């Protein structure tokens, strides 16, 4: 039986699968690549068996998936790749205004809506669009962009066409906005497996390989290699990529879980933390 593993080709996921393919070269596995929203749908549909998915989708599909403890993409403060670009100098000024939402993510979209409601007490008009900052800001007062695109746009911080001409957009980091509101880290993504395939994944050594690959990928040498490779790929200074990887949190610690729990309670009606299942010996208390 071939086991299907979803991967995301963003810099922030590279430590997870630093040498995962080599570790699983003798296993019957297939790798499927896509943006977070694609992997969210594929895992929910059962066309892939394991993937890093938007944290909110793990909660929405809690009956069908198990979460792997100790693996996450989280930040304490600025994350650098979940950014609201806007023509407004204050987020509060976006009340009633149009914000374009990336079509690549679920958690980031839900986070922005929580922040608008509970931190800024505003009600913008949200529209999901193709992720392309110039066209998003040409038609909207704000644009939510994630991933490598957000990192590149924030480092370059270029002037873009606006209703009044060519201007520099303001940039708001949603990880930082969450920290200011709650004092907690924010967990953007977790690794989740189909409940009906988790035992097969474990028996095939996939979970062990993923944990081992992550630990290797988080060594100083590996992060330096990844930073240099992605700097060339993205046209960014290696230092920017290095700092980004250094500042992320990958181990889903107690404070990350506390932030995740609060977010899910704010974002989802009738959410119960006990609905989440964590896999195996690394299982954590709910």
List descriptors.
286 residues; alpha/beta; D-Maltodextrin-Binding Protein, domain 2; 5-stranded mixed beta sheet; 12 helices; 12 strands; 40% helix; disordered C terminus
Structural notes for this entry:
The chain is of the alpha/beta class and 286 residues long. The protein folds into two domains: 3-73 and 186-275, Periplasmic binding protein-like II (D-Maltodextrin-Binding Protein, domain 2, 3-Layer(aba) Sandwich), CATH 3.40.190; 82-182, D-Maltodextrin-Binding Protein, domain 2. It contains twelve helices and twelve strands. It has helices at 20-23, 36-45, 55-60, 107-118, 133-139, 147-156, 174-182, 198-203, 206-217, 220-234, 238-247, 254-267; strands at 3-7, 29-33, 50-54, 65-75, 82-86, 98-102, 125-129, 142-146, 160-162, 165-167, 170-173, 186-194. The protein has a five-stranded mixed β-sheet, with helices on both faces. Helix 1 (20-23) links the parallel strand 1 and strand 2. The two termini are 32 Å apart. The model is unreliable at 281-286 (pLDDT under 50).
């Amino acid at each position: 039986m071939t086991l299907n593993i979803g991967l995301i080709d963003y810099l922030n996921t590279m430590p997870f699968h630093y040498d995962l393919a080599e570790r699983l070269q003798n296993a019957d596995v297939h790798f499927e690549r896509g943006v977070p929203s694609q992997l969210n749908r594929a895992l929910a549909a059962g066309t892939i068996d394991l993937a890093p998915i938007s944290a909110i989708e793990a909660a929405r599909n809690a009956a069908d998936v198990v979460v792997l403890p100790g693996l996450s993409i989280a930040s304490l403060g600025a994350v650098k790749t979940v950014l609201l670009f806007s023509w407004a100098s204050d987020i509060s000024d976006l009340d009633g205004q149009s914000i374009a939402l990336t079509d690549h993510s679920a958690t980031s979209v839900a986070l922005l809506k929580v922040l608008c409601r509970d931190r800024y007490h505003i009600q913008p008009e949200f529209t999901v669009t193709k992720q392309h900052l110039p066209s998003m800001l040409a038609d909207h007062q704000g644009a939510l962009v994630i991933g490598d695109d957000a990192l590149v746009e924030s480092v370059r911080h270029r002037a873009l066409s606006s209703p009044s001409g060519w201007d520099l957009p303001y940039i708001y980091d949603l990880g930082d906005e969450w920290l200011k509101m709650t004092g907690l880290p924010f967990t953007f993504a977790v690794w989740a497996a189909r409940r009906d395939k988790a035992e097969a994944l474990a028996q095939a050594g996939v979970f062990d390989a993923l944990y081992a690959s992550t630990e290797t990928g988080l060594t100083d040498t590996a992060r330096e290699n990844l930073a240099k490779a992605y700097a060339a790929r993205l046209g960014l200074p290696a230092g920017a990529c290095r700092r980004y990887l250094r500042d992320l949190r990958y181990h889903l610690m107690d404070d990350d879980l506390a932030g995740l729990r609060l977010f899910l309670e704010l974002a989802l009606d009738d959410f119960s933390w006990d609905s989440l299942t964590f896999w195996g010996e690394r299982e954590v208390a709910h």
